[in-house]
């Protein structure tokens, strides 16, 4: 295959890949924020708040992401709520992954030794200070490998928004395959681009994980002990 023909195929696919990256960036940031909010609601002392968070998590985890996307894009207009495709795609990904991240964050926080909480209270720290300075850094170190896995899953799950006509890598591949009738070539290129994106993201997470795994980074050495900051 000549470089000219290959360029003809790669240009629309790379354009779709940029939209995939935009989807991932927006969805990941918002999903982390939502996950933290739902996590704290799930651990709230108020029963109605805990129940609402649990119901949300159970509904999202009990239904496929594809159904949720269809509900947002095709179902809500029947109620008079029309959401643009890209926004519906981001919203669906955020709601879906936010539920999973909420449970991941909750598990990480609960894995922190109770002695850390008692020590922080003895130092007179507020709840917000305890979470920011002592609990969350240790919880992050515990959940970071799983967080990286969720990020890779999110990259690949952005392909599902193609079913609601959002232009991204998978949608670009569908359109190109339909126009050229070269499905094998097109979807091979699509798979290769996804593989490269996931490879880069995986590399970044491995580098970050190594930084978090430095002995004494979170505890032990006085310079890196969170309690020593107070």
Note down, in words, how this protein is organized.
By secondary structure, the chain is mostly helical. The protein has one domain (3-229): MetI-like fold. It contains eight helices and no strands. Helix 1 packs antiparallel against helix 7. The radius of gyration is 21 Å and the shape is flat. The model is unreliable at 215-230 (pLDDT under 50).
Low-confidence regions: 215-230
**CATH level 4 superfamily:** MetI-like
Helix content: over 70%
Secondary structure tally, helices: 8
> Whole-number average pLDDT?
86
**Domain module count:** 1
CATH topology group:
MetI-like fold
Number of strands: 0
Q: Based on the structure given, which CATH architecture is correct? A: Orthogonal Bundle
The sequence of SSEs as H and E is: HHHHHHHH
Helix/strand/pairing category? mainly alpha
Distance between the termini: 64 Å
Radius of gyration: 21 Å
Describe the sheet with the most strands: none
Function: Part of the binding-protein-dependent transport system for glutamine; probably responsible for the translocation of the substrate across the membrane.
Family: Belongs to the binding-protein-dependent transport system permease family. HisMQ subfamily.
GO molecular function: transmembrane transporter activity
Keywords: Amino-acid transport, Cell membrane, Membrane, Transmembrane, Transmembrane helix, Transport
């Amino acid at each position: 295959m000549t470089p000219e023909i290959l360029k003809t195929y790669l240009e629309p696919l790379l354009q779709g890949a940029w939209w995939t990256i935009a989807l991932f960036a927006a969805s990941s940031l918002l999903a982390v924020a939502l996950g933290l909010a739902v996590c704290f609601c799930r651990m709230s002392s108020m029963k109605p708040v805990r129940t609402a968070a649990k119901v949300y998590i159970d509904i999202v985890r009990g239904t496929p992401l594809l159904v949720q996307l269809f509900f947002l894009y095709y179902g809500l207009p029947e109620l008079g709520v029309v959401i643009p495709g890209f926004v519906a795609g981001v919203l669906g990904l955020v709601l879906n992954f936010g539920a999973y991240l909420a449970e991941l964050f909750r598990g990480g926080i609960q894995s922190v030794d109770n002695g850390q909480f008692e020590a922080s209270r003895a130092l007179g720290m507020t709840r917000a200070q305890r979470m920011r300075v002592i609990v969350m850094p240790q919880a992050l170190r515990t959940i970071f490998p799983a967080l990286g896995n969720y990020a890779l899953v999110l990259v690949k799950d952005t392909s599902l928004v193609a079913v609601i006509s959002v232009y991204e890598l998978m949608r670009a591949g569908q359109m190109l395959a339909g126009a050229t009738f070269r499905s094998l070539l097109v979807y091979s290129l699509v798979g290769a681009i996804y593989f490269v994106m996931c490879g880069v993201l995986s590399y970044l997470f491995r580098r970050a994980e190594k930084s978090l795994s430095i002995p004494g980074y979170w505890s032990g050495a006085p310079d890196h002990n969170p309690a020593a900051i107070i």
